[in-house]
Amino acid sequence: MKHSTLCLVVGKDKILLGMKKRGFGSGKWNGFGGKVKDGESLEEAAVRELREEVGLRAESIRKVCELTFEFPHVPKVRRWDQLVHVFLVEEWSGQVRESREMRPEWFSFSEIPFQSMWQDDSHWLPLVLKGKNVKGRFVFGEDGNSIKDMGMEEVEGF
Asked: What distances in angstroms separate CA 93 from CA 36, 59, 117, 157, one per listed residue?
């Protein structure tokens, strides 16, 4: 199973999300992240992906969540199964900018567009935004979008 990262940039009661413009997850709002390169730590990958996708430099990051995503109906060679390491970014520098990958937009916590996000997000993201550390497992159905099975637990930390 491949390892990926996801950065959630949060300010006072707001979260920065990006509309994925191409590739895996295109057409969905999401945080910023991606694959871990050989020789790169999870934190280094998270910081690099944030810079590449939205132009921000994380001044501090904190791991808050681990999510296992399984797509049993997708051939393993396509590598959709992944363990995603989620980081909270509360201090950053730089200017938010659009990239070829993502179109960023700020949302208040009360107006997060869950209807245009991965279906799992509505289960774990509210907990993370309330300061919880979470481990989750989501198994997706044949359509690659609906949740067939899931499990979540709050944990002490990472």
From this structure: 22, 7, 26, 26
Average the pLDDT over 135-145 and give the result: 93
Q: Which residues are registered as beta bridge partners of 7?
A: 32, 87
CB 66 within 8 A of CB 157: no
Q: CA-to-CA distance for 150 and 103, rounded, in angstroms?
A: 29
Residue keyed to tokens 């910023």 = 32
Vertex 34: Cα angle to 83 and 69 (nearest 5): 25
pLDDT band at 141 (very low <50, low <70, confident <90, very high): very high
As a whole number of angstroms, the distance between CA 122 and CA 59 comes to: 27
Sign of CA dihedral 109, 122, 88, 25: negative
Measured between alpha carbons, how far is 105 from 6 in angstroms, rounded to an integer?
16
pTM of the predicted structure, to 2 decimals = 0.94
Q: Rounded to an integer, what distance in angstroms lies between the CA atom of residue 81 and that of residue 66?
A: 13
Helix (H) or strand (E) holding 43: helix 42-54
